[in-house]
Amino acid sequence: MFACIYSRTVPKSQQKLEDHDAKAASPLVDLAFTFSPLVEQTSPDTVVLDVSGQDLLFGPPAEDGSSAEVECGRNIATDIIRQGKTLGLKVNVAIAANVDVAIHAARFIKGITVIPPGDELLITRDFSIKHIDYSLVAMDEKRAAEIQETFALWGIRTFGDLARLPLAGVAERLGQDGVRLQKLAQAKSDRQLHLVRPPIGFAQSLELEHAISEVEPLTFILSRLLNQLCANLNEYALATNELKLTLKLHDKTEHERAINLPVPMRNPKTLLRLLLFDIEREPPQAPIIAVAITAEPIKPRSSQTGLFIPLAPEPERLEITLARLAKLVGVQNVGSPELLDTHRPDSFRMQRFTVLVSRKKPHSNPQSAIRNTPCVMGFRIFRPPWRAEVCTREGKPTRIDAPSGDTRVRVRGQIVCASGPWRGSGDWWRRDVWARDEWDVAVVDPKSEEGEVLCRIYRDVTTEEWFVAGVYD
Amino acid sequence: MSALTKKEVELALADRFGAIFERHERRPLEVLPTGVREIDELLFGLPRGAITELHGPASSGRTSVMLSALANATAQEEICAIVDCDDTFDLASAAHAGVDFRRTLWVRCGRSLERAFKAVDLILHAGGFGFIALNLCNVPAKVVHRVISSWWFRFRRAIEGTPTTLVVLTPVAAVRSCAALILELKNESSVWPSTLSLVSENSNGGFTSPDTTARYLSLVPLTAVAKEHPAQPHAHFLQAMKIVVNRQRPVELRPGKVKFNPQLRVR
Description:
The complex is a heterodimer. Chain A is of the alpha+beta class. Chain A is 30% helix and 32% strand. Chain A contains 12 helices and 18 strands. In chain A, the strands form 4 sheets. Chain A has a 6-stranded antiparallel barrel with strand order 13-14-15-16-17-18. In chain A, helix 10 (215-235) runs antiparallel to helix 11 and helix 11 (268-281) runs parallel beside helix 12. By secondary structure, chain B is of the alpha/beta class. Chain B has 9 helices and 13 strands. A 9-stranded mixed sheet of chain B has the order 5-4-6-7-3-8-9-10-11, sandwiched between helices. A two-stranded antiparallel sheet of chain B has the order 1-2. A two-stranded antiparallel sheet of chain B has the order 12-13. Chain B is globular, with a radius of gyration of 19 Å. In chain B, 51% of the residues are buried. At the A-B interface, helix 12, strand 10, strand 12, strand 13 and strand 15 of A face helix 4, helix 5, strand 5, helix 6 and helix 9 of B.
């Protein structure tokens, strides 16, 4: 059985059906989806839904076959009209075994029409042929106008007139279009519904009966929501690169977290781990009473690997590893460094570490990629610099004693060789102005067996204090 | 048995037993070139799927060798990681050495040895990294000695069969038998140069040096006037350095084992 809902009041914004989202957002479609998942939107003012198999919900307690079906249809139609009123819709509802008969009946007859199986022609035979819906037989407007003119010449005025014509004559004069129209008039058309997809939901939420304040029970809830979310994404062959978690707390506040992923993912286990790491790093301040997760859908990544492309970490595993590292050492201590465009020593910022995908052809022989540039001497910088006591003679440093911050190691001894000073300064317009005289020195500690230590030391010009910037190594 | 004698025996028995000796020979390990020509000529590079230890005192050249290898790895589009125990990784000198930071993950461990080891473990198990460096240069020797060996065994087990090179920079030898290659760097001269020597190898099997004459490598500045005041700050260090072979202290090299003259340690 099919139910057709015809709205006598359709807003202008719903007049066009080109946009899929406009279709899905129509209140008429919403009304239909409350009764059945199988819904066709025939036109902006007409929807058809399959209401078969709803006897237990809407049928009478115990009746015989045909009357029970009619009674069930009537109950459904009554309920549709009642629900439509709550949405502000004035609708006609027709129930029939044939889709097209239901459509025409809903358009022609006001209120509720229930057509028992076999009685279709009795109802439709008096309908005017001028109002037959040519789009139901996939006929364009030009052809429809020609046929309508022909019907007028033949004196065909109702569905019943067309239904009574001999099939061979109609086929001979109007071709297959005529045959399909006659079947429509005879209520013998047989077609499937062109189903409307329900609106895509990439948001999941759950309100909790009891507030939770531990991670373990939250894990199960997040797992359930993410499984559903990823199933939805998988169904539409999509993935997500942004996950938003909203936790409603017992103190009427909200704890919102957003996880941006460098590559699209839809693996619920990976997303669950990332969410949990994030929650453990920044836990909510009160027990949780509701959980909501929203995913931003995008196309999944497509990667073409090759035998000669250097190995790179798998993006999902890398994300989990980075999250674990951030939990271990702090999020500000993990990443890819970037030198800042300034003369201030040791100016850098940490960026999110992502794997670069190279598009250029890899070296056929790895040995050919070896740089021919000469080796440069490495430097180990001390953060913060070690405060030092330096003896000078004629402005040149001669002796140094500099314990490290935790005094585990120190630089101490005679300066046997020194180069410098190089004066550097900058940021004079800021509070943290810097100005220093730098020296490269070779320090020998007679008590130590280590030999020379090559250091970079500097004198802060503003405070006249000496520091060890680092060690050449 | 010297290498020559062994080869003669194998050739003599080849007619009767075929290539029986070749079956038991380990395949040569893949290596990651360091970019230091003298080291690469001697060792071809740092072994993949194994631990390499660079140890020595301050200013002995550990960081220089590591930066060169890191720069080469990033030039080959490998994904690399620096686990910096004491937060001493200098970006300016690394950039000067040619390191591509976009391919380098830097983990700053805030002077926590435990966090550094856990971070290396996480990165090793993530897989896909071509070069990982664990920087323990500033950790005192007595603390490094106290590192329980199970960590090194765990790392060796995790890295086996992978194309990853794990380089550990320490002030003293600590990795011991878990390292496939141990390079000891010495700062023994009274001026700027430092010396690098091949102390041990083959503890993990299969990594041998073909050259039996070169033993010691010295890191010396190219500029002879290093102590003079150059116009550009720190130019004498940031300019090109050169590693030269020092043949003044010969040692005996046997296949699979390196023996040193008495004043050095014997392994």
